[in-house]
Amino acid sequence: MAYDYADAPKPEPFEPDHVSHSQLSLWDSCPKQWEYAYVQKLRRPSSGNLILGSCYHETLEDNFKKKLILGHDLDIDICADYFSTVWDKEVKSAWEIDWGRQTPGAMKDMGIDLIEKYLCEVAPSVIPQAVELWIEKDLNGTKFVIRIDLVDMNGAVIDHKTSSKMYNQADVDKDTQASASAFALGKPIAFSNHVAVKTRVPHIQIVRTFRTHADISWWYQKAIAIIAHMKTGYAPPREDSWMCSAQYCGFYDMCRKDLAGT
After folding, report:
1. 13 Rama sector, left if φ>0, alpha if ψ -120 to 50, beta otherwise
2. pTM for this model (two decimals)
3. pLDDT tens-digit series, residues 53-63
4. Using H for helix, E for strand and C for coil, what is the string for 183-250?
5. For residue 189, which of 135, 225, 142, 228 has the smallest C-alpha distance?
6. Alpha-helical runs (H) found in the chain
């Protein structure tokens, strides 16, 4: 007997209590992955790269919060020790970790090298005005939440990233995080990506972009359209997304089974 596809279960409408930039960005990449993470609240295996990025970010956050008080950066050895402590804690508490072709020790050493590189070459010129700024704002009736890494004394937003390759200026110029940050701050901004590039010889890349009132308006219209789709309960997979593979999506096998009805 032929399968009646119309008999497939219909999703229930969904009302988020808030949305974040991370949610909107994940939906943009793959609505189905967003559903697994934020509606079903399923845990995903972590990876060495995610842990490295998290520990790198937390170490710089600690440095700049103390720089607000002390007026100078912390010693490299202090930051390296802080990174090691956070790293050990993250690895111990992780549910499952995919290390890829790297070893935990090699990735930890890489993270410390990146911290040292940033503290030597970039941090001295960064004068923070605000660090780890959490902003909540109404987005057409839905609470929008975003975390801004750092705002410097000139009002420019700085975001700390780790990456296996150099950033492309064209991609940065259309990245939605800068637009979301401008919306949250309520004004046009200069936005800098400080990218720790995980090459054999560590490299810090700085890529700048700007957001105008027109950019904010464009992002706003897109965001409320995404939220409207979220609320329907329909979250289709995006098989054309770079995320759609067992390597990049922790829900890949589950998604394939769900869509096949098995």
Report:
1. beta
2. 0.90
3. 999 999 999 99
4. HHHCCCEEEEEEEEECCCCCEEEEEEEEECHHHHHHHHHHHHHHHHHHHHCCCCCCCCCCCCCCCCCC
5. 135
6. 21-29, 31-34, 48-70, 76-93, 104-121, 169-173, 176-185, 213-232, 252-260
